[in-house]
Amino acid sequence: MAKMSLDDLRNLRDSKKNDLRKRDTEGKKIHVVVGMGTCGIAAGAKQTLDAFINGLDENKLVDSVDVRQTGCMGMCHSEPSVEVIAPGMPTVIYGNVDAAVAGEIIKKHIIGRELLDGRILDRPAADIF
Question: CATH fold of 28-127, please?
Answer without folding.
Answer: Glutaredoxin (3.40.30)
